[in-house]
């Protein structure tokens, strides 16, 4: 049955995406408990850590496909815990730049290691040539998605 589903390219994309997200979240499960963080809070912290100078809620919404309300809730919680600070943009007072506070860096570094482990396991046994091909194809697919939005 499963091979029949995987032979249908439409189902393959949807199943792959669902399973990818499930495995990604599973890898963080022990750290969600250890640091009392939600997966969304982890996603916000890792986005800020990995994507400087992208540091606004708008950036997170655009690139992580999280709802504005979920970002707001996560940012508020991280701010209250002392993990984030924010600065108002000097040229646009409506724009708030989020910063990871030094106290949170050791936690974020542990989260980053799990994220790196995830991507390493995902690309295990994939040659550099295959990776480049995959990257080319995914970039084209991403552009197709952007063109639809």
Automatic annotation (TrEMBL):
GO MF terms, alphabetically ordered: DNA-binding transcription factor activity
Pfam families in UniProt: MarR_2
Top-level lineage group: Bacteria
GO BP terms, alphabetized: response to stress
Annotated InterPro entries: HTH_MarR-typ, MarR/SlyA-like, WH-like_DNA-bd_sf, WH_DNA-bd_sf
Residue ranges of domain HTH marR-type in the record: 1-143
Record-given protein name: Transcriptional regulator SlyA
Originating organism: Tissierella creatinophila DSM 6911
Gene encoding the protein: slyA_1
């Amino acid at each position: 049955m499963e091979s029949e589903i995987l032979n249908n390219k439409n189902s393959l994309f949807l199943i792959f995406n669902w399973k990818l997200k499930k495995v990604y979240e599973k890898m963080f499960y022990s750290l969600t408990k250890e640091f009392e963080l939600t997966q969304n809070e982890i996603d916000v912290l890792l986005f800020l850590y990995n994507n400087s100078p992208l540091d606004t809620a708008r950036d997170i919404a655009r690139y992580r496909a999280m709802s504005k309300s979920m970002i707001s809730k996560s940012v508020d919680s991280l701010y209250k815990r002392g993990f984030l600070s924010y600065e108002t943009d000097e040229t646009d007072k409506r724009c708030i730049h989020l910063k990871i506070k030094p106290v949170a860096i050791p936690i974020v570094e542990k989260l980053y290691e799990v994220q790196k482990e995830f991507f390493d396991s995902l690309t295990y046994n994939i040659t550099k040539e295959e990776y480049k091909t995959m990257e080319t194809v995914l970039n084209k697919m991403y552009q197709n998605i952007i063109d639809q939005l």
